Amino acid sequence: MQKITPFLWFNNQADEAMDFYVSIFKNSKVISQKRMGENGPLFTGTFEIDGQQFHVLNGGPMFTFTEAISLFVNCETQQEVDDLWEKLSEGGKKSQCGWLKDKYGISWQIVPKILGELLGNKDAKKAKRVLDAMMQMGKIDIDKLKAAADKPE
Question: Does the global pTM surpass 0.85?
Answer without folding.
Answer: yes
